[in-house]
Amino acid sequence: MILISKIINKIKSLGKPASIVYPLIIIISIPLLLIINTFWNLRTFNRDVNFLIRHQAVSTADTLKPAISRSIANQEDLTALLFSSVEANSEILGITVFSESGSKLNVVSTTESSSNLEDLKKSGLNHLALGFNQPFAGLTYDPNIGKNIWNVSIPLEGIEGEGNYLLFIKLKTDTVEEILGRTSKDSYIILAILTLVTLALLINHFIFYKKAERTRELEELDRLKDEFISMAAHELRAPVTALVGYLEMLSGEISPSEKEKIKDDLEILNVLIGDLNNLINDLLDVSRIEQGRLKVEIVETNINEIVGNVIKLLIPSAAQKGLVINFTPIDLPLIKSDPNRIRQVVTNLVSNSAKYTLKGQIDIAVSLKDKFIEVMIKDTGIGIPGDEIPNLFTKFHRIKDKQTNEVRGTGLGLWITKQIVELLGGKISVESIYGTGTKFTFSLPINT
């Protein structure tokens, strides 16, 4: 029940909203920050441009101030000065000199048409400039030219005469707007590119994140599956052991004459119990291997002795099928390995050959190659199709054709064999010609 509840909780956790909300926040916030940064930079640039324009107007006023001071008494000279200044600087649209009389402004001289003078007098910039005694600038729309212009009002100090004087300058924004427009366009293009790249990277990251999350979930489910298999195998072992005991007890209580009648049935039961016991052992080995709990005990090991003992055990079943097992031992050094695991490997491979060999023989040979001992098991069986070989050592893989339908097995033996060989520091390979036979070869280091 605990295992089932774990699986249910894990499945429920697959829909956790946090895994979706977090990437969405990232996807939205980064482009948003880029947009804010771009507009902030443009705003800062625009502010700096305003400062430069005001500074330009003040510089123009400082340049004109001495000349205005000299010409203030002669309106014609002052007007000529203002017109020449406008002509000399293409950025200047118009210049007007005001004098303050009480709370009113009087036009001393101007390059503007008379229709614009009343609007100029009412400009709030003039009152601010006189009130704070410092330059003020403002951006306004001029309907006469259909464009935005800069109005700059600058107090003129130190000019002899009655009251205070004020210089009002109109400046074009064409150059500034062109620069600002070009800068804005470039900024928006860069922003769009960065946003697209960021979105692409984040989407890519989101995809990989979901795949990684899915992988973790599958690994967790796989772990729970292994725990379930291990638990189920352990739980099955007890009743199988009891079944074997009851079968032996039953055989002992039956009279010889009755036992002869059910001899075939008893043999079938023994075979089925043996298959079930092998399945349980395979499941336990799979669980131990995948959880890294398969133990090996390294001792000095005699390969010839192990192979010979395995053959003695398998000769009776092979003889029933009319198969011959050939093995000629040679002088080999002892190796440092696990004899029980090597016995399991040899048993799996020879049993596998016996299963899939309908007639003929199984040849087993050992040899010494460099610092490895090589064991070869070759049969005259049905062989393996070429497209099946790449998957031969995977879990639960079985060759399916007319000749193998009746062969019993779990598809775990060769996978377990490969894992054990590699755990002992060796390698395993297979060569096969379909319809002719198969050769398995595994090698183990002399010193593990």
UniProtKB/TrEMBL annotation:
The chain crosses the membrane at residues 20-40, 188-209. It is an enzyme of class 2 (transferase). Its main location: membrane. It catalyses: ATP + protein L-histidine = ADP + protein N-phospho-L-histidine. PROSITE patterns: HIS_KIN. Its EC number is 2.7.13.3. This is histidine kinase. It comes from Candidatus Woesebacteria bacterium RIFCSPHIGHO2_02_FULL_39_13.
